[in-house]
Amino acid sequence: MDYRFSDTINSFESSAVREILKLTQGKSIISLAGGLPNEQYFPLDAVREAFLRVFEQGRQVLQYGLTEGYTPLREDLCAHLARKGMKAEIDNMLLTTGSQQAIDLLARIYINPGDVILVERPTYLAAIQVFQSHQARLISVDCDEDGMNLDDLERKIRQYKPKMAYVIPTFSNPAGKMWSLERRRGMLSICKRNGVLILEDDPYGELRFGDGEPMPSIYSLDDGPQGSAVVYTSTFSKIVAPALRTGWVVGDSTVIRNMTRAKQAADLHSSTMDQQALHQLFAHFDLYAHIAVIREAYEARMRGMLELLKQQSWEGLSWIEPKGGMFIWVELAESIDTQELLKLAVQEGVAFVPGASFYADEPKRNSMRLNFTHTDSDMVVLAFERLDRALSKMRQTV
Ligand SMILES: Cc1ncc(COP(=O)(O)O)c(C=O)c1O
Description:
Elements: H1 16-22, E1 30-31, H2 44-55, H3 71-83, E2 93-96, H4 98-110, E3 116-120, H5 125-133, E4 137-141, E5 143-144, E6 147-148, H6 150-160, E7 164-167, H7 181-194, E8 197-201, H8 218-221, E9 230-235, E10 247-250, H9 253-267, H10 272-284, H11 287-310, E11 318-320, E12 327-331, H12 338-348, E13 350-351, E14 353-354, E15 367-371, H13 377-397
Parallel strand pairs: 1-13, 3-4, 3-7, 7-8, 8-9
Antiparallel strand pairs: 2-10, 5-6, 9-10, 11-12, 12-15, 14-15
Helix pairs in contact: 2-10, 4-5, 4-9, 6-7, 11-13, 12-13
């Protein structure tokens, strides 16, 4: 058969990095590369019990469901959002197969080939892939520790007339940043003035370290959801378990309705078994106490990794101390290309994700993303020893 694939598949081409990371599978390589939550904190017993409660309700639980998602879970989530100062009714909410699908559905209904989407420098790799698969033109906006540079945002809006901006303002992937309130307000006001829709992606917002007050989402700063300039998505992946593949998206009801139509064409609906189990979890399990446990555990792991970073004398080493989330963003001397470093690191038995993968354009090659949630602390110590050896090898070859 002469297979004639669509042009779209080129946007799913496997990157060199993924090829290297594939080599780590099944070997004794310590991976700081994945974006994995720690299995130790999956509430296994509570999830089992939740599924049993669903099964006890009889055969109808196995039937097809609404594309919008299981109504009682949407009600639970509206109450959850209200706790965070976010207004949403069930008609403004769609349940998705992870927040990854929410990104895809919004791109499907909003983006024509060639439309410009503004993204952070750096941004989430898999969102870049989604937007590219819809043939969007991605332009990145300069960022610092407080979020997007608003002057650069205005300049790029004037120059490129974007239709949408995609941001992860709370404990971002990959940079672990938390945008200031001023930047959140500033971005909202600039985007509203210019008719640019904001997609706020918030998978990590609950994983806040310390006792500080949570930062309001950009969505909550707008007078939404009706007519809002912000579409907000989040997920159970980091606070319960990613295997349940359940995310949610809220926004103006017309936007949500169109996303629902796109979802109907894509997969009819996400797993109602998972959604029903999550409803039971809300009813019979203290999710907020569980989140508090994860936050504390992840903060301890983050502090452990920061201590190790402080002990290194790597040339040009700097990092952003995360206030939450799952990643530390590290920069090395400009002369160090971390994609080259990864090859040596894998030989030494450690992996990370080189920073260049997270740029939509003009990658910064001397950066890398380290995950601190998944690997246990004794192995992280070993991982740093191996990374140190890889860097020494690299110095010898330059
Ligand atoms: C920034 C960001 N958005 C979205 C997702 C997708 O998460 P899920 O589809 O599991 O909800 C991830 C996963 O790591 C992420 O880091």
